[in-house]
Amino acid sequence: MQLGEEFRKKYSGFGDVLLNFLASLCVLEEEGAPVNIKVPATVLYKIARKTNLRTYLPKRLSRKGVADYVEALFAWLWIERGWRVADFLSIMEKKNLEEAIASVVLEGLRLLKSYKAA
Q1: Given CA atoms 89, 95, 100, 102 in this order, what sign does their dihedral have?
Q2: CATH code, 32
Q3: What is the pTM of this model?
Q4: pLDDT one-digit tens code per residue, 13-38
Q5: Which domain, by its residues, includes 56?
Q6: Which one, of 7, 116, 117, 24, lies nearest residue 71 by Cα?
Q7: How many other CB atoms sit within 10 Å of the CB of residue 13?
């Protein structure tokens, strides 16, 4: 399974907003105070490598390009799989932010593989 440029273009814009919103909710749950979180591309790149998402992406991508695919995966789960805030938070809760995002990426990859195979 390979994720192409069309996947990134279609989903990464909304995914960026969604991921940062969910990250802010996770921190709010943990700290009890509202915050505005922007997850850095370097963190998303690290998560992509840790979860092996990088192996499904085109070669020669910048760190920002790889981060776009992490964001796109979040949007794909929302748009194509019908996930809502509660679905994301049930996977993300009680973890540090990096682990929480990685958990969603792993579940998203599992679902994407079965979706592509069907």
Answers
A1: negative
A2: 1.10.1520.20
A3: 0.92
A4: 999 999 999 999 998 888 888 888 99
A5: 5-117
A6: 7
A7: 14
